[in-house]
Design goal:
Elements: H1 2-10, H2 12-39, H3 53-81
Helix pairs in contact: 2-3
Length: about 80
């Protein structure tokens, strides 16, 4: 935690953009996988069960990237608030 604080506090604006790009990348991966189902006419689905193997990988990777980046952004917000 101390290393995270030292790194992020050294350049908070830079890390804001890094985290924003990572979150956007995760969302785009997630969206690409979900759109594959929507294009097949399945509007309401939960989870990657009905996806192809490749889209399932995009879905899981995107979801993990969004969750991890969300928590990094929460930590960033706590640090940036005290600068």
């Amino acid at each position: 935690m101390i290393i995270f604080v030292q790194i992020v506090s050294s350049a908070p604006r830079f890390y804001f953009w890094v985290f924003s790009v990572l979150y956007s990348l995760g969302f785009l991966l997630f969206l690409k996988a979900k759109l594959s189902l929507i294009m097949r006419g399945k509007l309401f689905t939960f989870g990657p069960k009905q996806m192809s193997r490749g889209n399932r990988t995009f879905y899981i990777t995107g979801y993990i990237l969004m969750v991890v980046t969300f928590f990094l952004m929460l930590g960033w917000a706590g640090i940036a608030q005290h600068l």
